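A quick aside before the break. I want you to see a complete sequence-to-structure record at least once, exactly as it would be stored in a machine-readable document. Don't worry about memorizing anything.
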Amino acid sequence: MGKTFPSHTALATETHLSYEDLAKKAQHFLAERPVVVLGSGATIPHGLPSMPVLAEMLLAAIDDSPPGWADFSARLEQTKDLEQALHDVALPTETVEILVAATWEIVSAKDVEFHDQLLAGAMPFPLADLFRYLLGTADAHLRVVTTNYDRSAEYAANCVGAYVSTGITAGWLQRFVPASVNVERPPAPGYEGQVSVLKVHGSLDWFRDATDDVIGVPLARAIPRNTTPLVVTPGVTKYREVHKDPFRTVMTAADAVLRGASCYVCVGYGFNDEHVQPILVNRVLKSDVPLVLVTKKLTELTRKAFLTNPPKRFLFLEEAEGATMVYDPEYPGGIRVEGTSVWKLDDFMRLIKGEKATY
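That is the input. The structure line, written in tokens, reads:
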């Protein structure tokens, strides 16, 4: 068995890592042309639901008891874990379709609220700041792998003037073009670099029409008639859908991007998705590819994957009361950096840009 390090509750509070030293560590890694990996924690600050919140909203939204729903909802109430409940209770196809539609409606409504706030200039957008920084300092073609359905990555790319590529054509009658996924475009007037967003679990903008074609409907306020939303819910629907496009092509492209990365920057990602993490974990542990993780709370899966036998190059930032808990090869058991909240993406951006810490 590997060495297990103590939890941060058992650590001394004396700090041996300064804010400036932490900034240098982060800046060094982010200069290495990173691939950005986004989980639900990246969008929760903008009003998008976490998995537990989504579970509660689904229970409230689906109240007409379709086939199998009584057993499923009872299991979900018991576990409070949407993915576990979907694994434990086999729902018939008609109920899965109801679940997918309800998931789309819940996430879409929150996404549209966020979009409207961005239009109104009502809130900061640190993900856009991260994209701007990386496009300006690391690579003019930024790759983003995300398990989220929402459009936050696309909005962030738009905010910094980058061309956004998801595999869907531009215009008002959009379609999926497999050959366009992750293809680098030549520089074009009016754009500041390119952001390829690889949405391995689907997108709010993607639908399958009555002819079984994949189409894009930008910023739809409701599910278009005679279409099915292409969002993969946790559990069994992952396995039903992933062998068809757009998921097959997007996942193949994401695998290639993850295998070719020279650094990973993960924001709010919990390492609980079998479509993304195997390649990432393997390369961090065996090929010494650096990993930067910014999150409110490290999941147990993250701790198990990386902190039992720590990799050679990593930097994890996690919330601690009145401080940030920092994990790296020098402090694999974690160390408090007092008076900073650099586990938040906006404060992390201040850190890497050399700006003053917030307290």
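Two observations worth writing down. The chain is about 35% helix and 20% strand. Residues 127 and 156 are 6 Å apart (CA to CA). We'll return to this after the break.
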